[in-house]
Amino acid sequence: MKTAALTRVSDFEWRIEPTGKMRVPGVIYATEALIEAMDEKVRDQVVNVACLPGIVSASYAMPDAHWGYGFPIGGVAAFDADRGGVVSAGGVGFDISCGVRCLRTGLRHADVEPFKEPLADALYHRIPVGVGSHGPIRLAGKRMDAMLTGGAKWAVEQGWGTRDDLRHIEAQGCIAGARADAVSDKAKQRQREEMGTLGSGNHYLEVQEVSEIYDRETARAYGLDEHDVVVFIHCGSRGLGHQVGTEYLKTMATSAREHGIELPDRELACASLRSDTGQAYLGAMRAASNCALANRQIITHLAQQAFVELFPEADLTLLYDVSHNTCKLEEHRLDGVNRRLFVHRKGATRAFGPGHPELPDEYRAVGQPVLIGGSMGTASYVLAGNADPRVPSFTSACHGAGRAMSRRQAHKSWQGGQLLRELRERGIIIRSPSLRGVAEEAPQAYKDVDAVVDCAEAAGLARKVAKLKPLVCIKG
Amino acid sequence: MWSHFHHGADIGVRGIGKTLEQAFEEAAVALTAVIAEPSEIRCLETCEVRCEAPDRELLLADWLNALIYEMATRHMLFCRFKVELQGSQLLGSACGEVVDIARHRPAIEVKGATYTELAVHEDRPGEWRAQCVVDV
């Protein structure tokens, strides 16, 4: 993207002045280099979101923003139901509540290093991954509905994890307001065999070493120390979320005009928050979010079983679980007034600052853990929410590195087998059912996650706590 | 004839045909090729789908989404497609087989057909193009 079309506010903040049908300005948090690496479409999409009814403050983009569908990936926008605000299925995306959880293992790098290969095999054996894989349980009928309203809490009640896990999941593992009746039979059918599966694409489970600590006090609160071994799980609501997204996108696209909503682009399909369609979508989207939380909880349990095969002393405890494709009702203070807003984060992570009442006691003084997944073979990060008043993007931060190259280009540029060998030489063990999938996820196909995270910190979105180095990756 | 086109994070599928129906059929082959090599898939089992949408573009997205649903719930991959259009309705069939991980080596699953770069157009007489970005 050319910087000429933007107003430079600081080295890390750029503004698009409102013109035409824009109701609010656009704001992009990025360095000049990151802006230049972004597709021009990111600007178009930030502008389009700024045109939606009831949008509040600005249409924001995070440092890892890239061309999405409707909203940019890395987009944040809040809407006020009292001022004609909307909810957008495209603003949440097909992978509803896709997110990351980080688990401590109680193990040190020296314990795991000699056993990386058998650990990779044990994880790959236990955790269903890739196209056509089936989960450990089958769900239907009332059990499906109980999962959709109960989320990770339901999973724990079924024996997949402990109650203590729930304290370290956003909304304590259960999103309120979920409506199983707003989820179609087709969506439920698509999920029947998919509970406890990772999926494919950029979804993964990674074993990592804490390679660097930046903020000792916060790291202590999060229970992290240098050379600790942790696990990152990145996946979402699987087939159910995809089907909910698909169906409501069509409903919203066809009904928007009837409800007097002029869409700048069809892919921004949305519905008034107060309309029947808007309310049904919120209920279905929350149910899909619970599906994602339950799914990550089940995978955690499978990972625990794999770890104890090799390390009987391993105890996988949840550091935090946070989604990055959501629409959440949150209270934010704007111009001295507390307002309840529907905050869309599409490829952006909620980043509550210190003192937020939703945070568990042990994190309240330091802020919410913000989990940033890198690409295969590169670092991941644990950040902490700042709630810096200079950055009014509804306490949000980036979510990953962001793609720099399309899958097609990546597939043409690299060979999966060669990549696996190169990563192994660097001490990173990969297991994946597809070499082409590996090539499409080549580390070089992504932006530099270090630059994205440094920018997020410099812009005040979140602060760095720990850097994580990959050891083993189970790749979808 | 089918092809894939560039999108930053995902992938575009495009079908070109002499008729609208053929363009839809080719777009479906392009969808399969996102996941696996179409020539590796055998036509052993056929399933029927029916879609309805207020315009051609939404009908294309519906057709591809119907196939994504059938692939996900039947654990199948498809290689041959037949489309019949009757006004706002589409009657389609897809022929394929159950996924064989070792033989098909599926690279990625498709989450849904998006409205990004969604277009159904007769570019010149007798050449129809049907395309959109699919989320993977």
What does this molecule look like?
The complex is a heterodimer of chains A (about 475) and B (about 140). In chain A, about 35% of the residues lie in helices and about 25% in strands. By secondary structure, chain A is α+β, with helices and mostly antiparallel strands. Chain A has a single domain (about 5-405, about 445-475), classed as Alpha-Beta Complex (tRNA-splicing ligase RtcB). In chain A, the strands form four sheets. In chain A, strands 7, 8, 9, 11, 15, 16, 18 and 19 form an eight-stranded mixed sheet that branches. A seven-stranded mixed sheet of chain A has the order 1-2-3-4-5-13-12, sandwiched between helices. In chain A, β4 (about 55-65) and β5 form a beta hairpin. In chain A, α5 packs across α11 (about 275-310), α6 (about 140-155) crosses α11 and α10 (about 240-255) runs antiparallel to α11 (about 275-310). Chain B is an alpha+beta fold and about 140 residues long. Chain B has a single domain, classed as Archease domain (Archease, Possible Chaperone, Chain: A, domain 1, 3-Layer(bab) Sandwich). Chain B has three helices and eight strands, in the order ββαβαββαβββ. Chain B has helices at about 20-35, 55-75, 100-105, and strands at about 1-5, 10-15, 45-50, 75-85, 90-100, 110-115, 120-125, 125-135. In chain B, the strands form two sheets. In chain B, strands 1, 2, 6, 7 and 8 form a five-stranded antiparallel sheet that branches. In chain B, α1 packs parallel to α2 (about 55-75). Classes of the chains: A alpha+beta (about 475), B alpha+beta (about 140). Chains A and B meet through α8, α10, α13 and α15 of A and α2 and β6 of B.
Highlighted features:
heterodimer; A: 476 residues; alpha+beta; tRNA-splicing ligase RtcB; eight-stranded mixed beta sheet; seven-stranded mixed beta sheet; globular; B: 136 residues; Archease, Possible Chaperone, Chain: A, domain 1; five-stranded antiparallel beta sheet; three-stranded antiparallel beta sheet; 3 helices
